[in-house]
Q: What sequence folds into this?
């Protein structure tokens, strides 16, 4: 899908579409564009063809105006975190590219400036001067196409041209494919830009960066993945991890240091803790936009001893079973734990 050339909206006055005057500066153009896009973005209003058409018109107009301004290649620096509206928008076409980056849990939680390699504009390959092929020494005319690079056929009076395979359409034989551009004749330069991940970004969030290269405006959609410690997962803003207890700790209770985002937490396991039980440490989960926190949930698993009990222990266990006949339980139950006060905000600041 693309909204490229031949769009039926191309006759619209881009300035009118964005509702701005022709002498607006780039900042007000950006502002107008963002404001309007929020009223009709397909992510916000799915299955709404009217708004969808409007979205395309606005985007077209923005691209057109940007190209008229002939701004030198520069990253449109987002002015505030608001610019990182999460969008998950899958569409490919001219001027769009998609990237996936993965960041550590700490960086995602605290927010961080990260560098991203964006695809720059296409440029003529400097190694082959845009031909895609090179010659060592002699450069004889292609005997098959006579130097035209194509063969022409007349098909029902309509001439069709077929690329000459012998000379790879260069018109000369003995060609060697250019190793730099792999025969394409152009290369895409990578450009490093810095983006700021907002604190508490969620996995799967897609950030958008607009870059202007001469006449083109390019949007890069960057999907952010988060590397969690082994066995951790997200449940909304809650973090879920598992804790495997041995038989004695489960039966007799224990104090066990578990890991949370904020560091180690001493979890008190009461006697008779069972498989599948969930301990909830409040406000130790992921951080929300308003600064409050989700919970950290700890799911209990049980591990029996690795080796079978030796004969004398087995005899004691049999005796125990007579003293304490137990019934297996099913289902889950939860324990709520009120976490210790959060570290004060200076700790937050020191990590940013
Ligand atoms: Zn080349
Ligand atoms: Zn040829």
A:
């Amino acid at each position: 899908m693309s909204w490229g050339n031949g769009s039926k909206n191309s006759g619209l006055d881009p300035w009118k579409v964005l509702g701005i005057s022709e002498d607006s500066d780039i900042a007000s153009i950006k502002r107008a564009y963002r404001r309007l896009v929020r009223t009709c973005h397909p992510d916000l209003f799915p299955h709404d063809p009217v708004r969808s058409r409007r979205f395309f018109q606005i985007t077209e107009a923005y691209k057109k105006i940007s190209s008229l301004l002939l701004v030198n290649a520069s990253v449109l620096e987002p002015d505030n975190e608001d610019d990182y509206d999460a969008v998950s928008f899958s569409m490919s076409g001219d001027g769009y590219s998609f990237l996936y980056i993965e960041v550590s849990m700490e960086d995602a939680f605290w927010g961080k400036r990260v560098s991203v390699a964006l695809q720059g504009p296409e440029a003529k390959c400097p190694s082959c001067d845009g031909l895609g092929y090179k010659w060592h020494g002699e450069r004889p005319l292609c005997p098959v196409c006579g130097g035209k690079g194509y063969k022409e056929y007349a098909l029902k009076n309509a001439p069709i041209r077929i690329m000459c395979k012998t000379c790879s359409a260069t018109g000369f034989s003995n060609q060697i494919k250019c190793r730099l551009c792999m025969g394409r004749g152009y290369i895409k330069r990578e450009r490093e830009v810095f983006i700021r991940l907002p604190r508490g970004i969620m996995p799967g969030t897609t950030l958008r960066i607009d870059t202007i290269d001469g006449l083109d405006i390019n949007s890069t959609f960057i999907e952010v993945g988060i590397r969690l410690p082994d066995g951790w997962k997200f449940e909304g803003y809650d973090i879920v991890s598992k804790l495997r207890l041995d038989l004695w700790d489960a039966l007799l209770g224990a104090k066990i240091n578990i890991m949370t985002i904020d560091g180690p937490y001493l979890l008190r396991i009461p006697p008779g803790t069972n498989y599948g039980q969930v301990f909830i440490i409040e406000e130790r989960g992921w951080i929300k936009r308003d600064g409050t926190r989700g919970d950290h949930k700890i799911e209990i698993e049980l591990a029996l001893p690795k080796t079978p009990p030796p004969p004398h222990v087995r005899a004691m266990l049999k005796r125990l079973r007579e003293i304490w006949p137990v019934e297996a339980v099913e289902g889950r139950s939860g324990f709520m734990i009120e976490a210790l006060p959060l570290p004060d905000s200076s700790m937050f600041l020191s990590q940013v």
Remarks:
- The helical segments are 14-18, 26-37, 49-69, 105-110, 247-252, 311-323, 345-351.
- The chain has a mean pLDDT of 77.
- Residues 14 and 294 are 44 Å apart (CA to CA).
- The chain is about 20% helix and 30% strand.
